[in-house]
Amino acid sequence: MAALRTLAFLAFVGVSGSLTQDCSYHSLLKHFNLTTSNEVIEMVRPVRNWTSTTLIQLDMLLFGILDVDEKFQTVTNYVWIQMKWTNEFLRWNSSEFCGIDSLTLPRSKLWIPDVAIQQDASDTGSIQEDPLVRLNPSGLVLAGKRQRLTYTCQLNLSLFPFDVQHCNITFSTLSSDGRFVKLTTFSNDAVLTSVSMKILMTQGEWKLQSMKVLKQNLTNEQTFSSNLVYMVTLERKPMLFVVNLIMPLFFLLVLDLASFFISEARGEKLGFKVTVLLSVSVLLLILQEILPSTEDDLPAIAQYFVGVFTMMWMSTLETMAVSFIMDLDGCCGKKAQSSVDANVDIQLEEHVADEDKDVGKTEESRLPSDPPDDCDLLKLILDKVKAVRQEAEHQDKDKTKPGRFRKLAKIIDTVFFVLYILVIATFLMYMYMLWRNLF
Prior knowledge:
The chain is an alpha+beta fold. The longest helix has 66 residues, at 300-365. 48% of the residues lie in helices and 22% in strands. A hairpin with a 4-residue loop joins β10 (206-219) and β11.
């Protein structure tokens, strides 16, 4: 009886020792033959039947919006990508290995799907792959990487700076056939957008609006490819551009409108308008540094800047023309006055000569005892001079009328003033429509 108890005790100790040895990760690796180099596991798609489809679940989260380059049409984001797939050769029963329910392995030990981004324009140094992958008892493999992703995007700047951009990030397999490797996600659009908004560290002048997932299956004569498209919608924060570009343009437009109340006689109006025109040209240079030089889709704000600049240029020419017309009016008035004075002098000389003759005749007819009256003679001469001057002014009044060019200048000023009022009204309407579309 004692011998039986001893044998039972030794058997229990042996079983316990064997179980203790099986609880190590090394035994699990030996079970999968991963302790030695196994190129088959690393190179071949892990399925027991080659016709089986490997489903790759891929999620992308946005950590930061780093840059949007309008000139080069690129967007730079900081993203985190996680992939899941099933390896049919790496399954185990956790109860047989002391409840081990997770195993981490180097990436080089397993088959990794060759998923790439079609719009990727970043360098290789921007990718930071996790050195280890996690393996579950069901054969589910989890691999992740972080990347400073720079990708191309066709930016639509027609409503700049109130624009909303829709950029696609397309994931596809480089060499695998889409019939055997399919891409999908394990989270829906709302979850991806919500999580990205919560973990977003930096945004700059942009705000993440939404992330949508689209699945594409492309077929041609030889191959079938499965693509996964993330549509990232970014909304620009326009306040900085409103303060630095739009409001200064509006203020300069109002200043140029106020210049119509400056008197032409001082000569300061032309210098003021030229200064305002140079200020608008500086704003145009700032806008040129921001926007790309594309002729197909010129932004509305650029069109309006050019329109305002043209109006101010025409207004400057109008000021020069008005100054010339007013100077012409003054020159004509001086000529008219000089002609009147000349006529008065000529007629005065003629009348003086006539008076001398009359006086001579009068003196001859008078008696020596009756001397001429000097006061009456002077009064008669002054009356004749006044009559001659009034007659000359009346004759030249219809020939040259001082002030008619000034009236033409006032009409031109009034027309340009009305045009400026219309431009400002259009500007305010444009801003209202953009603001309404934005909010």
